[in-house]
From TrEMBL:
Topological type in the membrane: Multi-pass membrane protein
Biological source species: Gossypium tomentosum (Hawaiian cotton)
Protein origin, superkingdom: Eukaryota
Family stated for the protein in its record: Belongs to the sphingomyelin synthase family.
One GO location term (cellular component): endoplasmic reticulum membrane
Protein's cellular compartments: Membrane
UniProt name for this protein: Sphingomyelin synthase-like domain-containing protein
Biased composition (Basic and acidic residues): 264-277
Residue ranges of the region described as Disordered: 251-290
Alphabetic keyword roster: Lipid metabolism, Membrane, Sphingolipid metabolism, Transferase, Transmembrane, Transmembrane helix
Amino acid sequence: MTLYIGREASKLWKRICAEATTEINLLLDNWKYVLAGLIFQYIHGLAAHGVHYLHRPGPTLQDLGYFLLPELGQDKAYISEMVFTFVFLSFVLWTLHPFIFKSKKIYTVLIWCRVLAFLVASQILRIITFYSTQLPGPNYHCREGSKLARLPKPSNVQEVLLINFPQGVVYGCGDLIFSSHMIFTLVFVLTYQKYGTRRCIKQCAWLLAIIQSLLIVASRKHYTVDIAVAWYTVNLVVFFVNKKLPELPDRSNGNSPVLLPLSTKDKDSKTKEENHKLLNGNSVDHADRP
């Protein structure tokens, strides 16, 4: 039994090392896209923090979702955050599964490049919307009488740039008309819908997205329009961005790194080599070689 466990552990370690080597090479080719996507997550947080200075509390707007869904109350607002955390962590673990399992369909770095592209495009639209129109926040800490509803003018630039993390993120106000949590949730669900393999998990993912939508409204964190805008906008963004990006290589037919797309440097060097051979009268057909 011990010998069997040791043998399987050795195989798993070799698999992890081989996958890590492949992913590191991919990261070296695509690090600019990953870094740009991560930097924009900070920019998005900075924009949401900035609009809090413009927020002016007022009466909660009339909302159909508030009439139809019972209010969870401030003490149960954590439920929607728990669902979102579960969706987020589950998706992250799924993108890391090629390091563990033999059956692989995606490359971790490439899938995150795509996910970050979806997030950035959606978040740009979100920033435009909540800076175009400021609405009185429906969340409990954004209402009249709350000390967090208005932010005093910043005393220095550093106070704005640091976003007062994590309190500034959790207790933000004014970033409405588009739900940030739903952007992440729908991007993750749509990505798994296309690249995932388990039908039952896809169905559960869509169910969780619907539950998350209802919980956000029931928690009074967003208006119903914020959820509705997120649902159709994120789907459109993913559709059009997918059409612009090259299709990801499918690993389900084999695990050979030959499926990896050539980098620009590799393509250029290969083209120069072939042109050089043609100019010297040499054939580039490898089939003619002995």
